[in-house]
Each structure stands twice: as structure tokens, then as C-alpha cells.
Amino acid sequence: MTDKLTVFNQDIIPVYTTEDGRRVVIGRELHERLKIGTPYDKWFPRMCEYGFSEDNDFSTFLSESTGGRPATDHLLTLEMAKEVSMIQRSPEGHAIRQKLIALETNVSELSPELRYLIKIEIEQKQQAKALEDMNRKLDDTCELIALDPTSWRKETQGLISRISDKLGGFEHIRDVHEEIYKLVDLRGGVNLKRRLENKKARLAMEGAPKTTIKNLNRLDVIGDDKKLIEIYVHIVKQMAAKYQVAINEKGAVSGTS
Fold first, then answer.
1. Tens digit of each residue's pLDDT (9 = 90 or more) over 159-192
2. What residues does 15 pair with on adjacent strands?
3. CATH class for domain 2-103?
4. Closest Cα to residue 6, out of 72, 218, 15?
5. What residue ranges of the chain are covered by domains with CATH 3.10.260?
6. What's 11's DSSP letter?
7. Residues linked to residue 23 through DSSP beta bridges, in sequence order
8. Which residues, at least 6 apart from 113, have a Cβ–Cβ distance to it below 8 Å?
């Protein structure tokens, strides 16, 4: 299996390229670089309990024998490697995750198909940058929106309701939410849906009530990460400025025409 891989990068954690152009990390090498004390054969199944599945997130192979019995190993997608690194909540995990995020932007050797997908992502970032520039201009004519960091959920939901009103009514609120979540994924380098699945799996393992787990949503995931809260609030502010949703003299959210 490993003889079909080519080394793409070895800084902090070895990253390989498969024959079909995918970037992967070897499970036992990640386990070693993360400095995990638990044996790999026990540690890896625990990681899979966070919602990762074979063929989608990893593939299994037997490592080359050095005279003894071949050991079971795995090829992990960069997305899984990032999530697993984050789960460890350690300096090593943070460093590896940041490196993997950076490597995803290196397109010098990617296939034409993957380059096209990255081109689309770059265009989305450019559009987000253009939106940010436009909002700076709107600040001259639209009062700056100030949100209390202790009540960010309630106040952003109020803004989102006003934005949906500007678009024609409450039936647009779902679309507004989805657009915001996509921008959070893009700017934060995360996958909110995957994190939500992992959070539900983790709480289920801890014995949380089924109703609690069922009611979880992507806002709960954002609330777990201070950086994501900042990104989310900033995006809502931008959208509010775009649709000219401002604050009136009494401090209440209002729409301007």
C-alpha cells in the first residue's frame, strides 16, 4: 500500500499523495507525532467513534512486516487528520492541524479537477473580500452594529430575522442561515456538519439525554469555539450591513430603506 504513495510534505507530519491525487496521512505516523500514550490499536477505534467511517474518511492496510506479524494501519483523509488532531486538545494537535490546513492551499501538484475546485473556493474568498470592502463603505451611511458578546446568539438571530424580512419574509431565513454557515466553514477552515456529528456522538458516549442530542445544531458547535463565534458574528454583521439592517436610536435592531 505505502509503495504506491509519494511524499508531498514532511514538515511536522508526513503527508502523502495517492495514485489518484488525494492527500493522505498514515494513521500510525499521526499517532506518533501527536505523542499519544494509548496504544494505536486501542486509540484508533476510539477516534472512529467520533463519526469517522471506512472508505469515506480512511482506508485500512497492513504495514510491511519487519520479521513479525504485519500491523494494521490506516490512510486518513486530511479532513479526518485535522479533526483527530483537534480532538486531542494538545499543542502537538494544534500544530499538526494548522499545518494540514496550510497544505490544503498548496495546489502546485494537484490534478486539474482539484485545481478547479480550489479555483472556485478562491473565487468565493474573493467575493467575501469584496463584500467586506463594500461593508466598509456602508459603514459611512449605516450605523455600526454592536453585538453584546455575552448574548451573541439572541442578537444575531434577531439580525438574521431582519435580513430574511429584507429578502421577502420568514421563508428565506433557512437560506440566510445556510449562507452564513457556508461562510463560517470557508473562513474558519472547518466543517460544521462534521463537527455537529462528532459532538452528538461524543455526548451519546457520555450518556446525554436523547432529546438534548437531537436538539443540537450548528450554532451549538460554533458556541464551543471562541474563534468560530467571532467569525460567525462578523459574518452576520457583514450581511446586516449589506442589506442595510441597522440599529435605531434606542439600540434596537431595525431595517433601513
1. 899 898 888 888 889 999 999 999 999 988 999 9
2. 9
3. alpha beta
4. 15
5. 2-103
6. S
7. 17
8. none
